[in-house]
Amino acid sequence: QVVLVESGGGSVQAGGSLRLSCAYFGYTYIPHCMAWFRQAPGKEREAVARIAVGAGSIEYSEPVKGRFTMSQDSAKATLYLQMNSLKPEDTAMYYCAAVRGSGICAMHSHYYAYWGQGTQVTVSS
What we know:
The chain is mainly beta and about 120 residues long. About 0% of the residues lie in helices and about 50% in strands. It is built from no helices and eleven strands.
């Protein structure tokens, strides 16, 4: 059974930084595709970044491009999201997610079968 556990959220002032981690368990192979999503109150869940692990390709959403950096460490079975220059509009619950098997790797929640419980990020102005 695949389990994803996020950590690293918190409260920061605008312009600050946070690093989120997502430890994953239960895989007998390196995950094919993982992503970070976020959901603010009253809004739909949106993709932040995704990584096709084998190819090493990473895609970011426009609102975070240039400020967030996603990385993955297979040896530690951990996914990261380094968030710099945070803005109040980045306030949300952040989730990591993984595709089942070799499924489509895209920036939409529809494609992800496994989800963590989320970690809250709050950015004050």
